[in-house]
Specification:
Number of helices of chain A: 12
Order of helices and strands of chain A: HHHEEHHHHHHHHH
Order of helices and strands of chain C: HEHEEHEEHHE
Number of helices of chain C: 5
Radius of gyration of chain C: 26 Å
Shape of chain A: globular
CATH architecture of the domain at 45-157 in chain C: 2-Layer Sandwich
Helix content of chain C: 10-25%
Strand order of the largest sheet of chain A: 1-2
Structural class of chain A: mainly alpha
Distance between the termini of chain A: 56 Å
Radius of gyration of chain A: 21 Å
Chains: A mainly alpha (332), B alpha/beta (793), C alpha+beta (176)
Shape of chain C: elongated
Strand content of chain A: under 5%
Largest interface: B-C, 36 and 38 residues
Helix content of chain A: 55-70%
Number of domains of chain A: 1
Largest sheet of chain A: 2 strands, antiparallel
Number of strands of chain A: 2
Oligomer: heterotrimer
Low-confidence stretches of chain A: none
Mean pLDDT of chain C: 90
Strand content of chain C: 15-25%
Low-confidence stretches of chain C: none
Largest sheet of chain C: 3 strands, antiparallel
Chain lengths: 332, 793, 176
């Protein structure tokens, strides 16, 4: 028999490969799903030419992006210009490391947690990485040496910093209720009732903040097409643009996963296996993202700031106090 | 200086200004047809109605008929005035046909503009339209009488302003016909102005027929290159083809009109034989190769024979920028000082004039304002047509014109003409100063005394001279005469930029000296910039040029010298590049290039349409401005503006940088230098029984550029020799007979024409291009033998 | 109240998009399904002829002047009978934006738009149409109009022979 550690290593490799493949194809098909859903919302079919029902569209897009000219602005900062899309995509990808997507499996007589790395401070890791993601955008806009790109990245910075605050504050009640920073612990704390039901204000604030963090409608002012062309990625083309693009959709998946983990009870659910519940919930939140994009118009910059600082932050703060008080009372 | 208010805007205008002009000065556009700045107001079209609300005149009045007075309050927007105008324009449109799409005036039609401005858009009158049968008015102007709105502008231009008598108005009431009594060519050399003046499409340019619309044509204000007067013209081109020239406005020179030579002589720029590629020894090459080859050959000559073996001949056709760079080039390399005119007589004339004109200079506007004109050896209609118009305006203002000339000078106005022998011009000039005419016959004495007496009495006298006939001695004498009589002076010169060349020549050698040096073998390389020594130079030029090792020609037309060049570099034609000319009164006139050179699209078409290929390279776009070739040789940046403004470092050209193309220009500030003393001419031994032949310029067919224009071919005069009937009778020659003319070098057959108004004993011939006559020196007496018939060649 | 209205308004929007998702799309599946455009559809440009069979185009340059993308060029010429016509006439369909301003500018109804919208091509030069490609043997949309029967310069009818014209006047006639 193989030594024990080899089997462990193989299993870990399989798990990592599964997660990576799932995330990337998930992101690719999320693009297709978004295009088809938006199409239907606008009485169109969406992509339906490449493959049956247009299912090969992501592949065609990838080929197209790879074959496009890789354009670098003449006066741009080349090194930063190369690095920026990488930061955007990689930070999005490695965030998934702490997200538990199913109940622990038992394989070959060993416990196998369905999470890449169950950190006890997983929530802080998530918050840290999501802050890091800002760099990709800020540097991309700066290195392009274009007024539109710079404007876009400045807007993105302001927006992400503002909404990070309300996002962080809306997580505090969850930590209070679960008494842990570990995401697995948080999921397990919702075995019976998801936190969304226990603490709906925190859920709503988190959902909205997450929408803003993903820079999607109605919070897409960093790339507002009719004002600043394409915002921070105006000067990007080919696969570099593709990395920003993939990063955005991975981000959607990760943020949906976070919503699932923090508020919707993760993999917990009746009848079906945990992993199906988990991905079902993620897809539901992702659909909500797309649905919102098809429904709501873009905020104006001042409205965005007003909403973040004067509405969400106070609500989240109040919620922290109230939740804390209730928890104190219940304990006392 | 009355002050009046129009549409609540006040303006102070000079006395005698009419209200329409005052409104125009305020920038108020008021529809009008019959009023024209040059023709004045007649109040015929009834379109410029304004409401006079307060002041000395009240009510609805025609603005062009009311002189501006103090305290007038006028409204152009008064409903009554507007209503009247809209009715008037509607009446005018009653008979106007529905043919704007096929009318050449469309797009630049005053009637179209005024109809829209007047608010008339829909025809209400159901009656039928009046029609006419058109006349054939010759090769320049097309008539389409149906379009006429009876503004009388054409008649006022043709008859009153230009003095034509074969065109007028006939008929009555709504049957007014503007045309000739019989169909035929319009005889006035200013007939083309009908095209500019007609507010609608009755008279259009035949050479421009259906070619281009106004909005497609590339135009820029320019200076006419066909004589020395410096008239402002506006050449227009499309698809790399120069398609028309129209009159520009320069109140100091041409006013509002130009002559037919200027208007229809543009064909040289599109000439099919024009060489548009640099070539060495007849083989086309690229610019780089040609210039390298040139530097190599020139270097070889300089190494072997020294820099003084290189001579440069510039041209009065070249821009001032080109001429100045030429001088700089010779100075930098120590070559011989450049010549700017190979014709020694014209060169010296221009230099003497430029040296001394000073305060005596008069513009054409001042000639039109003169009260006594004495013309000496000047035939304006042939040498400088617009001068004739200025003289006519002076006559219309009450000026008396005296003309002393061997030719039968025809003017479009009344003038007293005394035929004198060419050599009598000098004594006549000196006599005018001293009022002594002993050398003349008694009858002529009386005439001349009368002229001198009028000259002394006049307040604004101007002496008008023809540089060709006067020559350097005559010009010098005329200058002195003008100074001592305190009269103005106006001398026509050889080319559009003769004056500039004369200023730049300073006291450098003349062409005589250069030809001698070439004959003695001192000159080994000759550079001709837009010059043609083989045609324009003395007869010895051919022998002198034969001894050269290198002949470089830069030109935009093919001529004798260009054909025998070792290296030929194509230059742009005047409308194709910017530059500056100095006209014969020393007025600096910058011009802009209207279009970029290239082979006209018409000449490269395939299957009736332009080629179906895409290219960034203009076919035949190689020609470069002469200044640019010189700047390349001087290793200066190819920047016209820096060269143009750099000219100001020469005190002559102070203020040049402030001028803009199409402006009135400005006189040069400093006098030129006198040429070195002339070498005495050896008297030619005239053969027994020979007659003096005077070769002169004609309106059409003698000027080098316009003579290449196909449009002018139908009006080029026949190759003829003019002589007085008594001379003809003595020789037994009758009018219209073919005669044989034999000079020292040429033998040609011409038609004899008797001319009673010219001086007896003299033969006069036009120096027609393309005939052996073009080789004879202009303005100079050539002895020749005239025989009847003469079939032996 | 504002809060309730706001929530209601937002929810309504979500409802509408959700509902629309389940309706049948209006997309036409070109090129399998083709659509016959209306007669006044603005696609490929043609030059028509007058009812007498002559070319309507008089090369007045108005279409090229009206064209916002400068895709029309031509050269006018004069025929022996005085008719003004286009010596060559070129429309560059790679540039054309099918705005129809040329047809509105045309005073003779020569240039007209058809509903033939399928003019894609791989070689741009094949989209540069010459007069032979443009001229059709039909009167197009205004079958009765002949410009020269109204213009009054005597091409189709002798001078003064059109319906709305008097015969040529005689200048030497003294009668009132």
């Amino acid at each position: 028999m193989m030594p024990d550690w080899i089997i462990t290593a193989i299993l870990v490799a399989i798990k990592l490969g599964f997660v990576l493949a799932l995330l990337l194809t998930g992101a690719a098909y999320l693009v297709l799903a978004e295009r088809k859903l938006l199409g239907r919302m606008q009485l169109r079919y969406g992509p339906n030419r490449v493959g049956p029902f247009g299912l090969m569209q992501p592949l065609a897009d990838a080929v197209k992006l790879l074959m496009k000219e890789d354009f670098i602005p003449a006066q741009g900062d080349k090194v930063l210009f190369f690095i920026a899309p990488g930061i955007a995509a990689v930070t999005a990808l490695i965030t998934f490391a702490v997200i538990p997507f199913g109940p622990p499996l038992r394989l070959f007589g060993r416990e196998m947690p369905l999470v890449v790395c169950d950190l006890n401070i997983g929530l802080l890791y998530f918050l840290g990485l999501s802050s890091l993601a800002v760099y990709g955008i800020a540097l991309g806009g700066w290195a392009s040496n274009s007024k539109y790109a710079l404007l876009g990245s400045i807007r993105a910075l302001a927006q992400l910093i503002s909404y990070e605050l309300s996002m962080g504050l809306s997580i505090v009640p969850v930590v209070l209720m679960a008494r842990s920073f570990s995401l697995t612990e948080i999921v397990n704390a919702q075995t019976h009732i998801p936190f969304a039901l226990l603490n709906p204000p925190a859920f709503l604030v988190f959902l909205i903040s997450v929408l803003a963090e993903s820079k999607r409608t109605p919070f897409d002012i960093p790339e507002a097409e009719n004002e600043i062309v394409a915002g921070f990625h105006t000067e990007y083309s080919g696969m570099r643009f593709g990395m920003f693009f993939v990063g955005e959709y991975i981000n959607v998946i990760i943020l949906s996963s976070m919503v699932t983990v923090l508020f919707l009870g993760g993999w917990h659910g009746p009848l079906l296996p945990g992993i199906v519940w988990f991905f079902g919930k993620v897809m539901l939140i992702a659909f909500l993202f797309i649905w919102t994009r098809g429904t709501l118009p873009r905020f104006r910059y001042d409205q965005l700031m007003h909403f973040g600082w004067k509405v969400l932050v106070p609500i989240a703060l109040l919620n922290v106090v109230v939740t804390g008080a209730i928890l104190l009372l219940l304990q006392g | 200086m009355p002050t009046l208010t129009i549409d609540n805007k006040s303006i102070t205008v000079p006395d005698g200004t009419n209200v329409l002009e005052a409104a125009q000065r305020l920038g108020i556009v008021i529809p009008h047809f019959c009023y024209h700045e040059a023709l004045g107001a007649v109040g015929a079209c009834r379109l410029c109605a304004m409401m006079f609300e307060e002041g000395p005149v009240k009510g609805l009045q025609m603005a062009c008929m009311v002189t501006a007075q103090d305290g007038m309050q006028i409204s152009t927007l008064h409903p009554e005035a507007q209503e009247l105008r809209s009715h008037v324009i509607e009446w005018m449109m009653l008979n106007h046909p529905h043919d704007c799409p096929v009318c050449d005036e469309g797009g630049e039609c005053q009637l179209q503009d005024m109809t829209i401005a007047g608010g008339h858009g829909r025809r209400r009158y159901a009656g039928k339209k009046r029609t006419w049968i058109n006349q054939d008015l010759g090769p320049f102007v097309v008539q389409e009488m149906n379009r006429c709105i009876q503004c009388y502008r054409c008649v006022r231009t043709y008859q009153d302003y230009c003095g034509g008598d074969d065109f007028g108005v006939m008929g009555s009431r709504n049957r007014l016909f503007f045309g000739r009594f019989q169909p035929g060519k319009l005889e006035s050399p200013f007939s083309g102005n009908l095209v500019d003046v007609c507010p609608t499409g009755v008279f259009t340019d035949k050479t421009f027929r259906f070619k281009t619309r106004y909005w497609d044509i590339e135009e820029a204000p320019a200076v006419c290159p066909h004589c020395s007067l410096g008239c402002t013209v506006i050449p227009g081109a499309r698809y790399r083809e120069l398609q028309r020239v129209r009159a520009g406005v320069n109140r100091q020179t041409n006013g509002f009109f130009i002559c037919d030579r200027s208007r229809f002589g543009y064909g040289y720029a599109n000439h099919r034989e024009r060489i548009r590629q640099p070539n060495c020894q007849g083989a086309a090459t690229s610019w780089r190769e040609a210039l390298e080859h040139l530097k190599e050959r020139l270097g070889k000559v300089v190494n072997e024979y020294g820099p003084l073996s290189v001579a440069i001949v510039g041209s009065p056709r070249s821009s001032l920028e080109c001429q100045a760079l030429l001088r700089e080039w010779t100075r930098e390399h120590g070559y011989r000082p450049p010549l700017f005119e190979i014709d020694n007589r014209r060169d010296r004339t221009a230099r003497i004039l430029a040296a001394g004109l000073g305060k005596q200079a008069r513009s054409m506007a001042e000639i039109a304002d003169s009260d006594c004109l004495v013309m000496l050896g000047s035939d304006p209609l042939n040498e400088a047509p617009l001068l004739a118009l200025a003289i006519r305006q002076a006559v219309r203002n009450g000026c008396h014109v005296t003309c002393l000339d061997p030719r039968a000078v025809k003017l479009p106005c009344a003038a007293s003409h005394l035929p004198v022998q060419p050599e009598q011009l000098l004594p006549a000039i000196n006599g005018l100063v001293a009022n002594r005419f002993e050398e003349f016959e008694r009858q002529d004495q009386l005439f001349l005394e009368g002229a001198a007496e009028r000259l002394g009495r006049a307040e604004r006298p101007v002496l008008v001279g023809g540089g060709d006939l006067l020559g350097p001695e005559g010009t010098e004498a005329l200058l002195k005469a003008a100074r001592s009589l305190n009269a103005g002076l106006f001398v026509t010169l050889g080319g559009p930029n003769s004056y500039g060349g004369a200023l730049l020549s300073e006291d450098g050698p003349d062409s005589e000296e250069m030809i001698e040096a070439a004959l003695e073998g001192e000159i080994k390389a000759l550079f001709c910039i837009e010059a043609d020594p083989l045609t324009e130079g003395p007869a010895r030029s051919a022998r002198a040029l034969g001894q050269l090792e290198l002949l470089v020609v830069c030109d935009h037309m093919v001529n004798r010298t260009a054909r025998s060049a070792d290296i030929f570099l194509p230059t742009t034609a005047p409308p194709e590049a910017a530059g500056t000319y100095i006209n014969n009164e020393g007025r600096m006139l910058p011009f802009g290039g209207a279009y970029a050179p290239g082979l006209p699209l018409r000449d490269i078409g395939e299957g009736g349409h332009p080629p179906r290929t895409f290219s960034n390279i203009t076919t035949g776009g190689e020609p470069r401005p002469a200044w640019a070739i010189l700047a390349t040789l001087l290793q200066r940046p190819l920047d016209f503006d820096s060269i143009h403004h750099g000219l100001e470092s020469d005190p002559h050209f102070a203020g040049l940088g402030l001028l803009s193309p199409g402006g009135e220009g400005r006189r040069v500030t400093d006098a030129g230098m006198l040429p070195p003393a002339a070498q005495p001419e050896f008297p030619h031994s005239a053969p027994e029984g020979s007659l003096p032949l005077l070769v002169v310029e004609a309106l059409f067919g003698t000027e080098p550029l316009s003579s290449l224009s196909p449009a002018l071919e139908p009006v080029i005069p026949e190759a003829a020799v003019q002589l007085h009937p008594t001379t003809a009778a003595r020789l037994g020659i009758s009018d219209g007979e073919t005669v044989s003319l034999r000079t020292e070098l040429e033998h040609l057959r011409l038609t004899a024409r008797t001319e009673a108004e010219m001086v007896p004993g003299l033969l006069v011939a036009y120096r027609l291009r393309g005939t052996p006559l073009e080789l004879l020196p202009v303005g100079k007496i050539t002895p020749c033998l005239l025989e009847k018939g003469g079939n032996d060649a | 109240m504002n809060l309730i209205r706001g929530i209601k308004g937002t929810a309504q929007a979500y409802w509408i998009t959700l509902r629309t998702m389940f309706r049948k799309p209006v997309t036409i599946q070109y090129p399998e399904q083709k659509r016959q455009p209306f007669p006044r559809y603005r696609a490929r440009i043609v030059l028509t002829r007058d009812p007498d069979g002559g070319e309507r185009c008089v090369a007045c340059y108005l279409c090229s002047a009206a064209c916002p993308v400068d895709c029309i060029s031509m050269q006018a010429a004069e025929a022996k009978d005085g008719r003004r016509y286009a010596e060559w006439f070129r429309i560059n369909f790679t540039r054309c934006i099918f705005c129809g301003l040329c047809t509105e500018a045309c005073p003779t109804r020569a240039i007209q738009m058809t509903s033939d919208y399928e003019i894609c091509n791989r070689d741009p030069l094949d989209l540069v149409y010459e007069k032979t490609d443009l001229l059709i043997d039909d009167t197009g949309k205004d079958p009765d109009y002949n410009f020269y029967r109204h213009a009054g310069i005597g091409v189709v009818n002798p001078r003064g022979g059109n319906e709305d014209e008097k015969p040529p006047a005689d200048v030497r006639d003294l009668l009132p």
